Amino acid sequence: MAAWKGSSVLITGGNRGLGLEMVRQFLESPNPPDQVFAGCRDPEGPRAKCLYSMFLDITDPVSIKEAAKQVESKLNNRGLNLLINNAAINLHRTLDETDSDDMMRCYETNVVGPMLMAKEFLPCLKMAAQSSDLQGMCCRKAAVINLSTLVASIEKCPETFGVAPMYPYRTSKAALNMLTQCLSEDFRKEEILCNAIHPGWVKTDMGGKEAPLDVVDSVGGVFQVLSALTEKNAGQCLDWEGKIIPCMIVHFCPHCGTKIEAGFKFCPSCGVMLPQQDPEETVTDSISQMAVSHASPYSASCSTGQGSHIDLLPRSPLCTPPRKRVMFASIKEEEENHVTESSVVSKSASAAKGKGKRARRMSGIEPLSENEVLTDTSNKKWRLAKLLEQSDCGILYGVDKWRKHHKLDFLGIPTCVGFGLHADTYRFLILPNMGVTLQSIVGENGASLSERAVLQVACRILDVLEYIHDSEYVHADIRAENVYVDPTDLKQASGLTCTVIQVHLAGYCYAFRYSPSGNHVEYRELSRTPHEGAVEFLSIDSHKGAGPSRRSDLQSLGYCMLKWMCGSLPWSDQIDNPSTVMAEKERQVPQRSMYKTDVKGLLEQGFGKRKTSAALRAYLDQVMALGYNENPNYEELRNRIKDALQKLGASVQDPIDVTLI
Fold first, then answer.
1. What topology is assigned to 295-432 in CATH?
2. Active site residues
3. The model's pTM
4. In degrees, to the nearest 5, what angle opens at C-alpha 435 toward C-alphas 405 and 636?
5. Topology of domain 8-239, per CATH?
6. Between helices 634-647 and 451-470, what is the axis angle to 10°?
7. Rounded distance, CA 548 to CA 347, Å?
8. Domain limits of the chain?
9. 93, 112, 565, 648 — which has fewest CB within 10 A?
């Protein structure tokens, strides 16, 4: 058992059964909590010698409020570390035997009670989380644990229903699982962990004498699970042995809503990996290994130096899908290959959050070793050279027809030259060498580019965005690290000056299908992970967890243009705090409206005493005024940039001089 010394614990239903045994094992552990609160409706009934026993009826809001006051007075401003909602009732009823009173009694005790407990004790939990020195989320820091049951699993219902229908109990505990998910999402920002735990079928007054599991073993197992939980498990329902319990069957894609059939691993409409359950995975074996197993769905990503780019995708998803990853490694061609005209659009269901300006979440899967040979579907061999970078992953589209239709000589989308499956684990794509990233040229030191260079790059990126948007996707991660340029002299690329002929937009990690089958998604905040992507350049839609739309890409490109011209943005020093950055982007400045509409104020702060760019202001004025569903006028945006370039004595077709200024 983990060392609980220094922590405080509150257990509801603490005078019998599981609650009583939890109190006993906490107090008899080698390093017990400083304070254990046992809440029950009969404080004088059988109980362990807990540090503090109090009256608590979780069906009575007044009783809960009074208990919260009592606990708070005993905590001495240290906060409550662990709330275990154990109190519950079980009514064995068939449909014929169940009436409305039965349903309401179970729901009031098993769902409303835990909800009110979490609500009333939230200030104490927040205080514990804020005062803790522990990193991440864990039960010793601040957590809400709801005791649930296997029979609440919608997916497992066909297996368990015949044994015991229990209509009131099953449905109320299924609702408790949803409550746990909601609390997990709500409390995540406070670093308060929320999980549901199935203690097993236990010999207690509720479980009966026929139950196969002793209460001592059940609680011992539950405590091992609690000791191992981290933020990676937030919201999950697990059993007393640490196995994840699937709460529902996925009959639709959680991203685009498309109906799916059993056995699908990816959505046939938007390509997102669907949540699935690995029944053998346990928390107690090794929480950390959930992120590193080759069977995990983490994708890894490799970038090519002399040859091409490779995207590697593992095959098996978990129940709560972790973020997909891709490794970028340089590769060498082992045989002669013929390049086909196609491109990559990457897709990811989640976001990576970093602590530093360029911090990236690394893939949990082991990168392949250098010089390993991969064979694509046409039996061409490719040798891995050097691992350059790890980030996220992709989907394929043809671009040649679109490029010719729009009379473009060049479209900066990477072409796929090979793909396949390696070692029955890694799905890979091979992409040609696109040069170096724009970020590798401008660096981290606030260097800026000329207005002419920025407008030339932006115009070429606009071509790519129009193509992607026409294909029903948005990029959702516009930044210098994802813009590749091919300097005429690679030796100059790391210096202060070089000229560029072609510009590619890569890094489709967060690509999102905003218009499945031509139907634009609705604007819904928190429908996706808030602040997903590069925080510095995110649109406000993405900050708020709404699905990114076409305006999101164009607004992010506008932020990039401002950064490339000025060397920084007004919120560049705040990117470790996404909420602060969002507030800055929305902030009311004195006698001005928000940055998202007050383009003049934003440019004045960015350029300082220097003359602002009229072309950038015209671009931002147009894209900041776009509606969520509105189709941008790409031609007008391009023409304004071209007109500005003409006044600067240049054109889009000219080589780009990316000299730092």
1. Phosphorylase Kinase; domain 1 (3.30.200)
2. 477
3. 0.48
4. 35
5. Rossmann fold (3.40.50)
6. 160
7. 13
8. 8-239, 295-432, 436-657
9. 648
